[in-house]
Amino acid sequence: MAKRPSKKQSGGLTYADAGVDLETYDSFISGLGSMVRRTHGPRVIQNPGGFAGLFRLDYNQRLFQQNYVDPVLVACCDGVGTKLKIATETGDYSTVGVDLVGMSVNDLIVQGAEPLFFLDYIAVPSVIPEMLEQMVRGVASACKDSGCSLIGGETAEMPDVYAEGEFDMAGFAVGVVELKKATDPLRVAPGDVVLGLASDGVHSNGFSLVRKVVSTKKLSYGKIYKDLDADRTLGEVLLTPTRLYAEPIVKLLRAYKVKKVVSGMAHITGGGLAQNLERVMNPGVDAVLDKNSWDVPAVFEFLQSQGKIADDEMARVFNMGVGYVLIVRPTFADAVKRRLEKSGETVYELGEIRKGTGKVKLK
User: Is the dihedral of CA 231, 236, 237, 241 positive or negative?
Assistant: First the structure.
């Protein structure tokens, strides 16, 4: 007869022996409550101890002032990419959470949607509370600034998957749009004006090339390069977070409850201005843009000079100073520009839409 194992094995293996410290993990998670609750509005239903977040969708004029008739949910997810490697090398994790929210929410509003809620996923080899607190604080801050609620997430401790110093992040955003007000490439027409909103730098795309320039030229993230920035180190410049466009765009769209003054929008990420703008156009039009109509931030000139990168490669990889684009009806272009500037955006008139074959032409 086999011997029955005792309920308690002295000297037996524990989760901590496998690299997962549950006490540290639980302590970190329990401390997130107040930070997360600051992003909640009246649509969030509190669910202590729940396994998922609850968000109210029923018709309620006080909560849904848009009074949607035919609401459509809009969802997207994204990450921060290899920019995370620079956060690790500099020890500064305070901005990558903002990047995480920006990459998803900026995509979501392109559809004309209002952000509703956000969830994050962070995978680490081990829980380091100070590091994770910086990340989640950035996520919460960006959610609040974007008008969406952080209603859940996951922190995965996986020592056998991630080496010490490595980690990854993913974000998931959900929004809502009135179906008849959702953007549609077929609405883009000749005569429309193309407006660009300034970026805050590299944002969260192209960092494999950025890091290649840094390593090849033996640059230091901790050094100040005066031809780049007289006051900030290279690391600080590169970790400038993705600009959040949700608040000004949602505010703009709400101002025009009847007229469809915006015929298309694009978030300028990997692929650059041309490729992303072409995604929101139809085959019957071209966007003819003046490449001298916007200011190129110094960080791009610095990277191009250091890496001897060709102009077309720069334009294909980076946003080059334009982080978001709106295509608007010509009679409303000036009014839209003024509204966005009043919201704190730097707005460039990039060009216009003409008859064509669905291409962006830079002149």
Answer: negative
At what angle are helices 298-307 and 207-216 packed, to 10 degrees? 50
Same domain flag for 195 and 163: no
Alpha helices by DSSP H, listed for the chain, are 22-30, 33-37, 83-90, 96-109, 129-146, 207-216, 234-238, 246-255, 272-278, 298-307, 311-317, 333-342
How many CB atoms lie under 10 A from the CB of residue 6? 8
What's the pTM? 0.86
pLDDT at position 40 is 76
220 and 339 co-located in one domain: yes
11 falls within a domain: no
Q: Which two tokens stand for residue 131?
A: 């590091």
Query: Is the domain of 211 the same as that of 358?
Result: yes
Which tokens go with 309? Answer: 């990168």
Q: What is the pLDDT of residues 144-175, one digit of tens each?
A: 999 999 998 899 999 999 998 899 999 999 99
Specify the pLDDT at position 70. 83
Tokens 């974000």: give the residue.
171
Pairwise CA distance, residues 172 & 38, whole Å: 19
Domain boundaries, position 89 = 21-45+68-179
**Cβ 308 vs Cβ 209: under 8 Å:** no
Residue for token pair 């466009």: 245
Would you say residue 12 lies in a domain? no
